[in-house]
Amino acid sequence: MTEQTAQHTVRSYDEELKFLTHKIAEMGGHAERMVEQAVAAMVNSDNALAQRVISDDLILDAGQREIDEKAITIIGKRQPMAIDLREVIGTIRISSDLERIGDLGKNIAKRVVAVTDTRQTLSVYRGLQTIAELALTQLKDVLDAYATRSVAQVNIVRERDDEIDALYTSLFRELLTYMMEDPRNISACTHLLFCAKNIERIGDHATNIAETVYYIVTGTQLPAERPKEDQSHTIVMDEPLAS
Amino acid sequence: MNMLSEVDVEKKLYPAPDQPKAKMKGDNVSVFYGAKQALFGVSLDVPEKMVTALIGPSGCGKSTFLRCLNRMNDTISICRVTGNITLDNRDIYDPKIDVVQLRARIGMVFQKPNPFPKSIFENVAYGPRIHGLVKDKHHLDEIVEKSLQRAGLFTEVKDRLHESGTGLSGGQQQRLCIARAIAVSPEVILMDEPCSALDPIATAKVEELIDELRENYTIVIVTHSMQQAARVSQRTAMFHLGNIVEVGDTEMMFTSPTEKRTQDYITGRFG
Prior knowledge:
The complex is a heterodimer.
Chain A: H1 11-43, H2 47-78, H3 82-117, H4 122-148, H5 151-181, H6 186-218
Helix pairs in contact in A: 1-2, 1-3, 1-4, 2-3, 3-6, 4-5, 4-6, 5-6
Chain B: H1 6-13, E1 22-33, E2 36-47, E3 51-55, H2 62-68, E4 79-87, E5 90-91, H3 99-105, E6 106-109, H4 120-130, H5 137-150, H6 154-157, H7 170-182, E7 188-192, H8 200-213, E8 218-222, H9 226-232, E9 235-240, E10 243-249, H10 250-255, H11 260-266
Parallel strand pairs in B: 3-8, 3-9, 6-7, 7-8
Antiparallel strand pairs in B: 1-2, 1-4, 4-5, 9-10
Helix pairs in contact in B: 4-5, 4-7, 5-7, 7-8
Domain PhoU (chain A): 24-112, 130-213
GO cellular component, one term (chain A): cytoplasm
Subcellular location (chain A): Cytoplasm
């Protein structure tokens, strides 16, 4: 593939592209932090932290808007070609994935209050922590892949998404069990289930970003054959609820 | 029993996509201007009824190659062409070929509109008349009107056909030159930066025209505008220092070229 060394003849063009790359790195770091803090707030029932996460989401929204505007200006002004065009389109896509990740983090934070009232056994939170750690690793690795334009890293991220899906499926079962054990758990467990689902979605967004990075670097799309879903939709309750 | 090998079966199941017929073929073409070599053994097929764009930095040999295709380089005394160029598999440098006839089959449009200092009508009528393509006055009128129509100019000039061609706007003059080129029913049209002296609206009109002409003609266009090459052509050849760096489908060339030099050139990183 073509390596990227030379500068543009027009130097301000390089500056504009660099701005987009830096902004993505900034948004990425911010999204990571939001997810991390949202999960910590949930696990420790820390309402103050949850509130901070909720208000921080505005920063990601603003970041995405800024990238959209700058990218559209570049397209209009420079009419980018080849790698430049892929870079610009890539940042638009990645910023929207990061913005979604921020929303999902915020959504977790919003549920903290509801879950605090009916605190669940610690093992539920551990499950949530594990899946969150995995999703955060994915996010961190995919941001590294973007920063270094590494196709090898992209493939690692893409393949690891299955682990998140598997974990989510097992967490789903676990929460279902708690609900069946005691209907008073239903409200909290449902919130936790949404949290788990949100984290699983964060993993999917990381995979999307991986695919975008692959396209930026190679100019070709990754084949879509990767199994892309968790198995929770196949789970049914085979015991009647205890009355 | 006639068994098909695995390869045969594969060929049957997945036939190669239809390769368009090559209208012109350049094979190992080198051009010298005196002692200076401008092209180094270039080979390029020009597919029929398609637009082929030649791109590359100034002095890369793209115009030189274009001019070889209808032997325009013959007019430069120190110019020497080696290699082989064919039109419908016939060598166009064959001494038996009538160059005037050849240029009627392969028309050319230049960078600067260059209408004759004659009326609009005469500009278009001149070619068909000297090539003996005209039966009578009525037939000539017909050819002129049809050519102007094809060039998208007729409605704009139909009431002043006998005014001077040089009185038209730049964009109209260029379309007049295109009408003049197609009046002799060529098979191939060569265009050397046809829009570089035109404003964006006139450029858009010429590009629209190129798109329509593709139905009936094979077109080769030299352009410095990457966006224009991307818009009007189906095949693109990238020239550099007298060689072809890369040839491919236009779409591919502008989204993900294989060669670093192509990438650097089209993204504005050259040199």
